[in-house]
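Hello support,

Our group uses your service weekly, and this is the first time we've seen a run hang past the timeout. The protein is Putative efflux protein, MATE family. I'm not sure whether the cause is the sequence or the server load. Input pasted verbatim:
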Amino acid sequence: MSSEPAAHGASPRQVVRLALQALPVLAAEPLYILVDTAVVGRLGTVPLAGLAVAGVLFAQVTTALNFLSYGTTARSARLHGAGRRQDAVVEGVQATWVAIAVGLLVLGLGQLFARPVADLLGDGGGVADAAVGWLRTALFGAPLILITLAGNGWMRGVQDTARPLRYVLTGNGISAVLCPILVHPLGLGLEGSAIANVVAQVIVAGLFLRALLKEGVSLRPRPDVVRAQLSMGRDLILRTAGFQICFLSATAVAARFGAASVAAHQVVLQLWNFQALVLDAVAIAAQALVGAALGAGGADQAKATGARVTRYGLWLGIGFGVLFAALYPVLPGVFTADGDTLATIPQAWWFFVALQPIAGVVFAIDGVLLGAGDAAFLRTTTLVAALAGFLPLIWISLAFGWGLLGIWTGLSLFMLVRLVAVGLRARSGRWAVTGVG
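Update from on-call engineer: The timeout came from a worker crash unrelated to the input. Re-ran successfully.
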C-alpha cells in the first residue's frame, strides 16, 4: 500500500504499524498487575484486596510521571519531523537523567510513607499489611520503570517502535513465568509477585539504556533541555493528578464497603487500565505522526491524521464493548473464585462495557493533542472533569452507601465531560501549530 498525499494525513499502514508495535509496550505495566491479580487471587480475598490497594499506589509512579514518555515523544517527534534526529535522541538522554533522579527520590519516599498511606487507603489491618509488603518490594522497580518511560518517549518520537516491542516482550515473558513460581511453589506469597516484576524491570531498563548508549550522542546533562521538558511536564503532572486523586479515592471508598467490594473494584479497574492502554496504542501512533507532521510544517497533514485515528479509536472502542459484554460469564472467574467478589463485580462491569466506545474516542484525541504539545488544554479539561464530576460522586457514594454503582457512575461522568471537551478542541484546529519551538 502506498502512502497517501500529505494533505490526507498518515496512511493506514503507518498508523497500524506504530499502534501494533506500541501496544505491548503500553500494556506492559497493567499486564504485570493483571498477571499478579490472577495469580494472587488464588491466595484469597485479603491478599487480592491488598494488591488492589498497593497496585493503585504503585500505578501512581507511572501515571504521575508519564511526561517522561508522552512529553518526550511530543518534543522528539517534532525534531525528527524537522530532520534533526540527533537532537531528538538528546531529548531521550535528558529525560533519562530526570528519570534516574526522580526514580531514586520515589524509592526513598515510598519506603518511608508506604505504611501510613496503605493504612489510609486500606482497612488498617490485614489488607494494609498485605499492601505494604508488596509495595515496599515493588518500589525498587520505580527508577527502572521511569528509565523505560524515557526510552519509550524518544524512540516513539523517532518512530522506532520495533525495539521497544522486543524489550517489553522479553520483560513480560520473564515476569509471567516467575510470578506464579515465586508466589505458589516457592511460597513467597504476595511479595513473590512484586519480586517477579522487579526482575523483569531490571532487564527492560537495561535494554533501553543500551539502546541510548549505541546512538553515540552526548550523555552530559543539558539544563536548558531539562527545563523545557519539565515545563511541559508540569502540565502533564497536574493533569495526571486529577486522575490520581479520583482513582485513589475510588479505591479508598471501595475499601470502606468491605474486602469483597474493593476486590471486585480491583478486577474491573485493572481490566479498565489494560484496555485503556490498548486503545491508547492508536493514540501513541497519533503522537508520533502528528508531532512529526507539525515539526515538518504540515498542519493539514496533522489534522487529517487526527481525524483518522479518532475514527480508529471509535471502532476499537465499539469492538471492545462487544467483546467484554460477551466475556462476562467467564472472565471475572479468571481473576477470583470468591463468591462474594464475583457477586459484586456486576455493579461495575456494565459501566465498564458501556464506556468502551467513549474511551476509544477520548484516548485517540488525547494522543493527537499530546502529539501537538497541547498539554495545557488537556491539563485544564481533565481537572475540571475530575473535580466537577468524578470526585464528588465518589464521596457521595460513601455518604449514601451507593458502593461501586456510585463510583462507576462518577467515572462515566468524568469520561463524558472529557469527550465533549476534547471533541470540540479537535474540531477547532487551534492545536495544529507548526515548528519545533
